[in-house]
User: Which sequence fits this backbone?
């Protein structure tokens, strides 16, 4: 069962990376029209690769963990994307947002504790 939890973390990291690549592609699209296509397509290709790998790992997770346990754990993505967006893109976050992130983390912890 422990490998299932590690795989959920891997899925979260892969999908977080895919989301960040999509954001970077969107930013590249704002470049002048004569130079934006190449960088945008490279970031989108990397996003598809990461999200596809995440889906492949997710299928492995579903073989190891009950869906009712594994799916809520994907909420870890909210935490990872928030932290990465703040760090990489300097996106602002409010106290209310961080309280929501903390609530998600508490929920993940409660879901992972076996009775």
Assistant:
């Amino acid at each position: 069962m422990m490998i299932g939890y590690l795989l959920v973390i891997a899925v979260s990291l892969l999908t977080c990376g895919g989301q960040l690549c999509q954001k970077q592609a969107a930013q590249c699209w704002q470049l002048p029209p004569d130079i934006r296509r190449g960088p945008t397509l490279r970031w989108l290709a990397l996003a598809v690769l990461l999200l596809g790998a995440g889906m492949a790992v997710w299928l492995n997770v579903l073989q190891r963990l009950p869906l009712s346990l594994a799916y809520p754990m994907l909420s870890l993505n909210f935490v990872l994307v928030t932290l990465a967006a703040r760090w990489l893109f300097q996106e602002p976050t409010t106290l209310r947002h961080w309280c929501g992130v903390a609530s998600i983390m508490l929920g993940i912890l409660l879901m992972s504790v076996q009775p």
Q: What stands out?
A: The radius of gyration is 16 Å. The first helix runs from residue 2 to 28. The chain has a mean pLDDT of 91.
